[in-house]
Write a structure and sequence with these properties.
The protein is an alpha/beta fold and 351 residues long. It folds into 2 domains: 185 residues, Glucose-6-phosphate isomerase like protein, domain 1 (Rossmann fold, 3-Layer(aba) Sandwich); 142 residues, 3-Layer(aba) Sandwich (Rossmann fold), CATH 3.40.50. Helices cover 46% and strands 17% of the residues. The protein contains 13 helices and 11 strands. The strands form 2 sheets. Strands 1-6-5-4-2-3 form a 6-stranded mixed sheet, sandwiched between helices. A 5-stranded parallel sheet has the order 8-7-9-10-11, sandwiched between helices. α1 runs parallel beside α8 and α4 runs antiparallel to α11. The chain binds 1-O-phosphono-beta-D-fructopyranose. The site of 1-O-phosphono-beta-D-fructopyranose has 15 residues, from α4.
Length: 351
């Protein structure tokens, strides 16, 4: 529920620690962005999903190739890093061992500069990076990231716009996206107001052991994040797939015991979704769709619809994350699990 406030604070925040960057490179942040030809994103868990969303933005708006990898794998590969790479680490705590190890290793291979998106001032990641964008989420009590994720996305979108400006983003398109960013706090509030309906929907998951989350494009990582939230706090096995992969394996698992959650923010996706719907229903499965109100998807047998207020396609991943967080929350409450302190998990994995 703090998300509208902290997204606004992150929007208003400034890139900090540019002085470190100036010392390191003899340049300023603006010069740095001009020479970036590749972005390598590294993170773990929820922060990794934020990086996955950012890849769509960076490639679409800035036209700069972007790779994303979990730190826990990146650190065990031999790296070929181009010198004009911006190495971007995302971490709520700034103390995640794998993320720090990946950064330290990559430094040896050489790159243009390290940018951190982090929530904790003075953390190891902040100290070891050249450039920092602080998220303004404030302390997160729960182990499972919620406001950390949406503020990371806000910071990543602001960074993408800065990078895109150096790579010929059309001023009109930029202004349109800036306007959309400013609408976010109000839109997230509108989605939070769906709480009662989402609580109702959550009842269908209570007695289930497995679930499938589908998304396309930048909503695929949102589906991954929705699935992660459900498994972290309600202990229901949840798997996320790009919608188009349904036929390539997971469909074999679908039956009445396997609810399928789909994120479909616009008409185009809703159209494609119809084939998923037939495939799921033909197997007795039930589909739970989070769709744009304007797309007018009607509930019917086997199809449950959560209508989300219309939002800009670029900021949609931020808005659509929140109802999935609420869904997991209500399922967990119904199941009686400890929402803030799930079993076996630590807030920060430092070893
Ligand atoms: C990464 C992370 C969190 C998750 C859990 C364990 O942490 O995977 O996303 O919620 O607490 O660690 P961080 O690097 O973003 O601090």
């Amino acid at each position: 529920y703090e998300q509208p406030k902290v997204i606004k604070a992150t929007m208003e925040g400034r890139i900090t620690a540019t002085r470190v960057l100036e010392q390191a490179l003899g340049t300023d942040a603006e010069n740095l962005l001009e020479n970036v030809r590749h972005v390598q994103i590294i993170a773990c868990g929820t922060s990794y999903h934020a990086g996955m969303v950012a890849r769509y933005w960076i490639e679409d708006l800035a036209g700069v190739p972007c790779s994303v990898e979990v730190a826990s794998e990146f650190r065990y590969r031999k790296h070929v890093i181009q010198p004009d790479t911006l190495f971007l680490c995302i971490s709520q705590s700034g103390e995640t061992a794998d993320t720090l190890a990946a950064l330290r290793q990559a430094k040896k291979a050489g790159f243009r500069a390290a940018l951190a998106i982090c929530n904790v001032p003075g953390s190891s990641l902040v100290r070891e990076s050249d450039l920092v964008i602080m998220t303004q989420a404030g302390p997160e009590i729960g182990v499972a990231s919620t406001k950390a994720f949406t503020t990371q996305l806000t910071a990543l979108l602001i960074f993408t716009l800065a990078l895109a400006r150096h790579n010929g983003l059309n001023a009109e398109r930029e202004a349109d996206i800036v306007k959309a960013i400013h609408l976010l706090p109000g839109q997230v509030n509108d989605v939070l107001a769906l709480d009662g309906e989402i609580e109702e929907m959550s009842k269908a998951f209570m007695d289930k052991n497995h679930s499938l989350f589908l998304g396309r494009g930048s909503q695929y990582p949102v589906a991954m994040e929705g699935a992660l939230k459900l498994k972290e706090i309600s202990y229901i096995h949840a798997e996320a797939y790009p919608a188009g992969e349904l036929k390539h394996g997971p469909l074999a698992l679908v039956d009445s015991e396997m609810p399928v959650v789909t994120v479909a923010p616009n008409n185009d996706l809703v159209e494609k979704l119809k084939s998923n719907l037939e495939e799921v229903r033909a197997r007795g499965g039930e589909l739970f769709v989070f769709a744009d109100k304007a797309a007018d998807v009607k509930p019917e047998e086997g199809l449950h619809v959560m209508q989300i207020p219309s939002v800009h396609e670029i900021t949609a991943p931020i808005v659509y994350t929140v109802p999935l967080q609420l869904l997991s929350y209500h399922v967990a409450v119904l199941k009686g699990t400890d929402v803030d302190q799930p079993r076996n998990l630590a807030k920060s994995v430092t070893v």
